[in-house]
Amino acid sequence: MAAASDCLFCKIVAGDIPAEVVHVTEHAVAFRDINAQAPTHVLVVPRAHYRNAAELAHGDPEATAELLRVAAAVAEAEGHEDYRLVFNTGESVGQSVFHTHVHLLAGRAMTWPPG
């Protein structure tokens, strides 16, 4: 899918908006969340624009797997064996940017169930 002209994450992927990028592959970009909820809080996004995780899974299953591979690589590079991955799909569960992204959270104890 093409980039969406009004999408914050598409603009970060394109380099039009600065971000602290920590990992890049052909199909994904990982950058630090500006509203960190843990000592390590990185967002991993596909370069292509899909509105949510379900759309990405249907439209590009390999890119979905790439997000998980990149998240694992970032966690390892930052020294974390334990980490949490979160996909929010829909406004009522906390998705605020409608470009698929997975949150990588690590570096502190986390409880279950989450918020």
Automatic annotation (TrEMBL):
SUPFAM superfamilies assigned: HIT-like
Superkingdom of source: Bacteria
Classification via Gene3D superfamilies: HIT-like
Motif (Histidine triad motif): 99-103
Annotated HIT domain residues: 8-115
PANTHER family: HISTIDINE TRIAD HIT PROTEIN
Name of this chain's protein: Histidine triad nucleotide-binding protein
